[in-house]
Design brief:
It contains 14 helices and 27 strands. The protein is α/β, with parallel strands linked by helices. It has two domains: 291 residues, FAD/NAD(P)-binding domain (3-Layer(bba) Sandwich); 195 residues, FAD/NAD(P)-binding domain (3-Layer(bba) Sandwich), CATH 3.50.50.60.
């Protein structure tokens, strides 16, 4: 790459044109209309996950009344396909002229902050050339995993397998499934989406899981929203009310998982039996060892995964892999699964702020040595925020909340004539316990546990952690006092000649 002059300065630079970046851009231009901004997107189009993930059946695992933005009504079924989500995002971009602010094909490769100038310099690669952009505030919306490569464990004998091994995150175009025996390794939302999608296309598909997952089957419709539409309520009001109803139901479920986990467990297993029948071994295949919502509760619209198994087009095996063979997978139980294609729906590689090298005043930033402020800002890193959503609620809910908070913070800095904001531990935090990003007893999916050492730390005081509690943050964030001790502001130094 060849270095160039500065290609533009902006008040705010947003990294990523996915669901987080587009939502953040809307809030910025709506709530801070005087701010200039630019979105840098590594891909050649918007959408992020919904563009890069092309495996069969790709869909949301959250309802679109809450995964959709609060400002844009959703008029389709609660669970939506990637194509429907991309169409929704395209409408948001066009209706708000956000496309004018996006630079596609710009991959951020480095970001440097100068405390003297109160400026970020962002290096991006575009068509083999280096582009340099400067900004006052950096709004990181690039997601939380490695988009280029998914996580696949290293099993013995993988090189011996004579069929095709595919990770859903990098699904090959024109993959031929007809007449093929497919084994899908995994038990999360991706496997639950992919298996029923291909069950009628391939000869047979087997869901192979080391341990079970809780699944929540229900109709892919909202009776509440449908009734509101039937009586003539506007799309805007339907969206607002259906969103409130979905959030109320989600909060109630989360609370019940804590206060009466055995009751919720029984309800979920009974729902599975309704599809699979009394003779199916629910205890072995769909009864996890953890309590409901200690890992993500996967929604399966219209019970499609269970229906695929009940029909015989799909089956489920709960076992551990001993090794791959030329013709499939040898299990520790002694069973052999014949396969032409093996799909490794085994999760993704968590990536902290896109794996981008950051520097502050020439010193590299090691985010694992920082402490997070409410899961969105970090000690020692000024004028920057990272959108990291919720595990038990829709990701986009936090995009909206953080949009409000960051815009309020930017307004406060303008009103007080400040050029920089940092978060710093207070005197009262001197003896505070510094802990891993997430309490494993609270939430412990494999991708997070594998990469916890890379994540910023949390403190024992609630302001120094990402609580993962939307309902609490919804009430707390608007009331955060921006003059509190944890916020440290400063201005650029004025040269003596200028001051005179």
């Amino acid at each position: 790459m060849t270095a160039n002059k500065i290609d533009g300065h902006f008040d705010v630079l947003i990294a990523g044109a996915g669901i987080s970046g587009i939502g953040s851009a809307y809030h910025l231009q709506t709530q801070c209309p005087g701010k200039s901004y630019l979105i840098l997107e590594a891909l050649e189009t918007f959408g992020g996950t919904w563009h890069t993930h092309t495996y069969p059946g790709i869909r949301s695992d959250s309802d679109l009344f809450t995964f959709g933005y609060r400002f844009k009504p959703w008029v389709g079924p609660p669970i939506a396909t990637a194509e429907e989500i991309l169409s929704y995002m395209e409408e948001v971009i066009e209706e708000n002229a956000i496309d004018e602010h996006i630079r596609y094909g710009h991959k951020i490769v480095r970001a440097r902050y100068s405390s003297e100038d109160k400026i970020w310099t962002v290096h991006a690669e575009h068509d083999g050339e280096e582009k340099l952009y400067t900004c006052t505030f950096l709004w990181m919306c690039q997601g939380y995993y490695n988009h280029a490569k998914g996580y696949t464990p290293g099993w013995d004998g993988m090189s011996d397998f004579q069929g095709e091994i595919i990770h859903p995150q990098t699904w090959p175009e024109n993959t031929e499934l007809k007449g093929k025996r497919v084994v899908c390794i995994g038990s999360g939302a991706t496997a639950a989406t992919l298996v029923p999608a291909i069950a009628g296309e391939c000869e047979h598909v087997t869901l192979l899981q080391r341990s079970p997952t809780y699944f929540f089957p229900a109709e892919n419709r909202s009776e509440f929203a449908d009734e509101l539409r039937r009586i003539g309520v506007s799309d805007e009001l339907v969206h607002e009310l259906a969103r409130k109803k979905a959030l109320f139901d989600q909060d109630e479920t989360c609370q019940r998982c804590l206060t009466e986990p055995e009751v919720v467990k029984a309800e979920l297993l009974d729902a599975a039996r309704q599809y699979l029948g009394e003779d199916f071994d629910i205890d072995k295949h769909f009864t996890p060892k953890y309590r409901p919502w200690q890992q993500r509760l996967a929604f399966i619209p219209d019970g499609d995964l269970f229906r695929g198994i009940a029909s015989g087009a799909a089956s489920v095996v709960t076992d551990e892999i001993e090794r791959f063979t030329k013709t499939g997978i040898q299990l520790k139980s002694g069973q052999h699964l014949d396969a032409d294609i093996i799909v490794t729906a085994t999760g993704f590689d968590l990536s902290v702020l896109g794996g981008i090298p950051f520097e502050v005043d020439g010193t590299p930033v090691d985010f694992s040595q920082t402490v997070t402020y409410r899961g969105m800002m970090f000690t020692g890193v000024p004028n920057m925020a990272w959108v990291f959503g919720y595990f038990r609620a829709s990701w986009t809910l936090r995009v909206d909340l953080m949009g409000d908070f960051i815009c309020r913070l930017l307004h406060h800095m303008d009103e007080t004539n400040m050029d920089e904001v940092r978060v710093e531990l207070r005197a009262q935090d001197k003896d505070m316990d510094v802990l891993p990003w997430m309490d494993a007893d609270n939430f412990n999916p494999g991708y997070l546990m594998r990469s916890m050492h890379l994540m910023p730390k949390r403190g024992s005081d609630p302001i120094w952690e990402h609580t993962q509690d939307y309902w609490k943050e919804r009430d707390e964030l608007p009331l955060v006092e921006l003059t509190a001790e944890e916020f440290v502001y400063s201005r650029k130094k004025v040269p003596a000649s200028s001051a005179a």
